[in-house]
TrEMBL record:
Pfam families the record matches: Amidase
Membership in a protein family: Belongs to the amidase family.
Alphabetized InterPro entries for the sequence: Amidase (IPR000120), Amidase_dom (IPR023631), AS_sf (IPR036928)
Organism: Pseudosporangium ferrugineum
Lineage per the UniProt record: Bacteria, Bacillati, Actinomycetota, Actinomycetes, Micromonosporales
Residue ranges occupied by any Amidase domain in the UniProt entry: 30-437
Classification via Gene3D superfamilies: Amidase signature (AS) domain
GO molecular function: catalytic activity
Protein name: Amidase
Length: 455
């Protein structure tokens, strides 16, 4: 904490917006404070692709010039946007110079909603090439986890997670195609919400990664996650209340055969279940019906989504990283041979919904990760096989719920023996985002977590 720039660095989005609306501070001051902190901390983290210094100050001044701030739920709040999401006036990098697209003429809808709520975009955050991997690094080096600089912050929304965990912004936008919000949230000790299908505008590439991808939010508190979710979903900010008595299914079995959650992750699930029991909820063992079919469908869809993105963008495969080239080629084969079918994904969604009904559970509790986050370095130049094994070995629990299109949230529980955060995942039925946030709030009250790891 010695490197804190000023008072407003480390404040929540709700605290900042309330203070700006009341006139206790200005958006300009808040943004300047955070830009100063970014200048101090980001050289060690490399969370940002671009920092919009002067532009962000001008935008903050425009917020301050508005006569009525009462209807701006994010008045003056500095936010970060993932680099595959269009921000007017900037290229959209997609994780590499090879995949970069032209300067965007207008904001993506989620960026428009953030700005419309009074937020100020201070920069765009880094991701792995084409968002394919659960580690965030590239030709110009890795993004680092503020809890331990030799470890990854996860991926693909790794830059957004690192920025929030280090206090460089109070909240950040990310997107999640096979865990790309929840994995970084678990790595960095954050609340990370992936909404269900079609709740927040997506518009990411070709068919939203064949229906896998959703935009969502990363935050240090449940209240901030709820506020960010409401803005992105185009809703009035919701007041969360403790949920009525719930029946919570608890599952430890990995979706991937041969991969098992380590002791700290199993202990995190046990702690969460105990806390929910103490709060008056019922917990029962309920292992999802993971099948070989859903595992294969997940892999093939992951491959094919990359191929279709590369094809639509006219990318020259020779300019991509070796791991990405092989991934795209596998996707081309899978797509052209008809191995990737919507009915596979629909079947898993139906099976998932039936599972909730058959087990009579309201939500499902699982580990967020299987083991400690991998090292920060050595992935972008590594082989496709290395990256595949690394991703599956440490982060197998997220992907099935993208295929099913169900909402899911990661919540911090504490720290591992190695000092890195550990969290758990909750999965809900369609339209249960606010319920998931309410459950997260129960854990936050019962088991407060350390919000930041300042660098």
């Amino acid at each position: 904490m010695d490197n804190l720039a000023t008072t407003w660095v480390g404040a929540t989005a709700k605290q900042i917006s309330r203070a700006v609306r009341r006139g206790d501070t200005t958006a300009t001051q808040v943004v300047a404070d955070h830009l100063e902190q970014i200048a101090i901390s980001d050289p060690a983290l490399t969370a940002f692709r671009v920092v919009r210094g002067g532009e962000a100050i001008v935008e903050a001044e425009k917020v301050d010039d508005q006569e009525d701030l009462a209807n701006l739920p994010l008045a003056g709040v500095p936010v970060a946007v993932k680099e595959n999401t269009a921000v007017a006036g900037l290229p959209t990098w997609h994780g590499s110079a090879a995949a970069r697209t032209a300067v965007a003429e207008e904001d993506h809808e989620v960026v428009r909603r953030l700005r419309g709520a009074g937020a100020v975009v201070v920069g765009v955050t880094r991701m792995p090439e084409m968002g394919l991997w659960a580690t965030t690094d590239g030709a110009d080096g890795p993004t680092r986890n503020p809890w331990s600089l030799d470890r990854t912050p996860g991926g693909s929304s790794g830059g957004s997670a690192a920025a929030v965990a280090a206090g460089l912004v109070p909240i950040a936008q990310g997107n999640d195609g096979l865990g790309s919000i929840r994995i970084p949230a678990a790595c960095c000790g954050l609340v990370g919400l992936k909404p269900g299908r079609d709740v927040i505008p997506c518009d990411l590439g070709v068919d939203n990664w064949l229906g896998l991808a959703e935009n969502g939010i990363l935050a240090t508190t449940v209240a901030d996650a709820a506020l960010g979710f409401s803005v992105l979903a185009g809703r009035s900010p919701a007041k969360l209340t403790p949920p009525d008595r719930l029946r919570v299914g608890v599952a430890l079995r990995s979706p991937v055969q041969g991969v098992r959650a380590d002791e700290p992750n199993r202990d995190a699930v046990a702690t969460a279940a105990k806390l929910l029991g103490q709060a008056g909820h019922d917990t029962v063992t309920a292992e999802p019906p993971y099948t070989t079919g859903v595992r294969i469908a997940g892999l093939l869809t992951w491959f094919a989504a990359a191929y279709r993105e590369a094809q639509a963008s006219g990318l020259d495969l020779k300019t991509l990283q070796p791991r990405t080239r092989r991934h795209v080629r596998l996707g081309k084969m899978a797509w052209n041979r008809g191995w990737v079918r919507q009915e596979q994904r629909d079947a898993w969604r139906a099976k998932s919904l039936a599972f909730f009904e058959e087990k009579n559970i309201d939500v499902l509790l699982t580990p967020a990760l299987a083991t400690t986050p991998p090292p920060a370095d050595g992935h972008s130049g590594g082989s496709w096989r290395h990256n595949l094994i690394e991703n599956i070995r440490y982060a197998p629990y997220a992907g099935p719920w993208n295929i099913a299109g169900l909402p899911a949230i990661v919540v911090p529980i504490g720290l591992r023996p190695d000092g890195l955060p550990v969290g758990v995942q909750f999965v809900g039925k369609p339209d249960s985002e606010l319920l998931l946030l309410s459950i997260a709030g129960v854990l936050e009250v019962a088991n407060p977590w350390t919000r930041h790891a300042f660098v």
